Please model this.
Amino acid sequence: MERVGAIVPAAGHGRRMGGRDKLFLPLGGRPLLAWCIETLESCDLVGEVVVALNPAGLKRAALLSEARGWCKTRACLGGARRQDSVAAALLLLGSVDWVLVHDGDRPFLTEQLIRDGIDAARDTGAAVAAVPSKDTVKVVDAAGLVVQTLERDALRAVQTPQVFRADILLRAYAVTGESATDDATLVERLGCQVRLYDGAYENLKVTTPDDLVVARAIARRWKGAG
Amino acid sequence: MERVGAIVPAAGHGRRMGGRDKLFLPLGGRPLLAWCIETLESCDLVGEVVVALNPAGLKRAALLSEARGWCKTRACLGGARRQDSVAAALLLLGSVDWVLVHDGDRPFLTEQLIRDGIDAARDTGAAVAAVPSKDTVKVVDAAGLVVQTLERDALRAVQTPQVFRADILLRAYAVTGESATDDATLVERLGCQVRLYDGAYENLKVTTPDDLVVARAIARRWKGAG
Model:
């Protein structure tokens, strides 16, 4: 049986949410962070979960964990950047074959996305959920002029889960000093191939108050369907 | 006084909205399409508006125009692709110096976005509203492997308004046969420089039912502020 450990970076400060810590905002009857954690908790494929939080979040998550009976999930202090949080969580994770990283502010994780990610990662050792870009995307120069319009059909907006063979992710974190907006980018810099697999538009990242409006609509649908 | 004509492509069929014609869905007390048309109607900078519709839309828009007292706006039959609709509308537009193209399914157009677009277009003859990309975007090959992770800081998600010197846009439409997801791309293919200017995240395109949920939240804010 392969061992899968999950890391949930959740140490951000929610600046675009008006200063409130978005991870603990109510969403369909439970805090936003509880959604993805509880999908990981209930998924048999996942052996353990480490969530990286800021100091205030650590306290709130401890209470939440006890109240909701989380049993696979431990917490650690995250860092200033997303990748600092992932690095801190990696240190706490036990010996695993695969590491699945999932943003704490993407509540609508499903068992399907977890399973598909692990399956997709078998090929090259790294897989990332992604959806076709809805936008026309252009590259701009410092003067504000268009340098290039990208071929939309080939563009994917990256989500999480991002699943890696543990040794690859450890190596990526051992060598890197540079910033990256996702873990796969660090792995790509090692020269490793990364496979994209089908994410879901519903698997949104809750960043702004408008995102929260959408999330609440989706949460109502999920409860209606559940 | 410079003459500015506006074109509103609105002939799409709303396939991602469950088959309903999204342009006539209610949004804060008026049909979605009425929002941008009425901002153009009330903006002194804009002399005339041509909206391109599908056959069913033409009938509904005629009733709407009469009911709401639109006086600068005429309609034409649009085409299968967005650019076919813009080409049809261009034929109907009078002699103007500038053409402003705005998607009919972006309700939250403001006079500021119109004014800024015209100002920005003075430099090179073409300007497009855009916002920084929120997503990490990767380029994928046919096998589903990542070819490139794009430098997010240089990426802009393109919106409308897109404003063009009339002769440039006419030339772009005269020579092009290829498809493009926005008008600026056609202009870029002529070798013309396109300037990006600051759009707004609120200036969203309503494509899916979840987009409509966000649009209704924004419409409530606008009415609350108005």
